[in-house]
Amino acid sequence: MLKPFVKMATASSHTYSPLLLLFLLACSCRASSGHAVDPACPPAKASALAVETSDCGGPRCQAPAPHVPVPVFPYDVDPMQFALNLEYTEAEFFLHAAFGVGLDQIAPNLTLGGPPPVGAMKANLDEVTWRIAAEFGLQEVGHVRAIQNTVGGIPRPKIDLSANNFARVMDQAFGYHLDPPFDPYIDSRNFLLACYVIPYLGINGYTGTNPIIDGYETKHLLAGLLGVEAGQDAVFRALLFECKSETVPPYKGITVAEFTDRISTARNQLGKCGVKDEGLTVPPELGAEGRICTNVLSADRDSLSYARMPAELLRILYLTGDEHVPGGFFPEGANGKIAREFLRKPFAAEGNKTPAN
């Protein structure tokens, strides 16, 4: 059952990691008869993974050869490595919220020597939200690994995931200090509102990066990342949409929808490149085909994802509106050649490092 495991998560990190591994093994749904199995997992025979084929590597399962058979072009590397800044941030936020530990305990080889996050902690989540955070956190581990294995890695930057930093985000969005300060870890609703803040920017970034890369392995990587990041954002927005008209305790009169509208407006203002962000509701003329005010997915007039370039993303993530002035989620600046050039500092990494598989 889940509840005993959640209670175990309050233990210290040196006793927690083995328990986490045992739980993940149980949840793989391959436990032998007589062993504890996560009740959320389907019977092994009913799983789609049980389907066996003899020609999985045959021509019907492989993409055609590209016109220019270059796996990774040199100019693909920096934009894809830049994406690691957001992937690191999401991984640490989701993992800590679900398990109380992050990459240093779950996949320490992927940090490449970067400092641990500041202020990240286990959140008080209901079962559904906990499962979402746990799954998405583990997915982000795969994202970090996939990028590093394809284009090489950069060290994890210093990431501020403290309640104080999220409170600053919300205060900036509302234009005044919320009382009490916003805390993303206090309950499931606040956690989902905090999830509205970061993952959507990953969609913007990958959409903006796609036209400037050409390697077939790099494009395959980006498409896979974009698909999952978009799915994660859709889950968060759908859950928030269900309660869009409800107030967010203890802030009397402030609804979930207003929170999303304020956050989206703040991101547009910080990004300084027009409207590329919308809350859960919009005037009908701005909705899909100008016919609906619901806005479960944020998209442009043709219902395509908005694109943002690195400078825009840094202005938002730094909370400064200036890609040259670090702060916010990256108090010492993001890592990688692109981010460091904006800071006019030497590249922090000692060359590109690729982890062992």
Automatic annotation (TrEMBL):
InterPro entries referenced in this protein's UniProt entry, alphabetically: Pigment-catalase-like (IPR052965)
PROSITE patterns, alphabetized: PROKAR_LIPOPROTEIN (PS51257)
Signal sequence range: 1-36
Record protein name field: Desiccation-related protein PCC13-62
Keywords: Signal
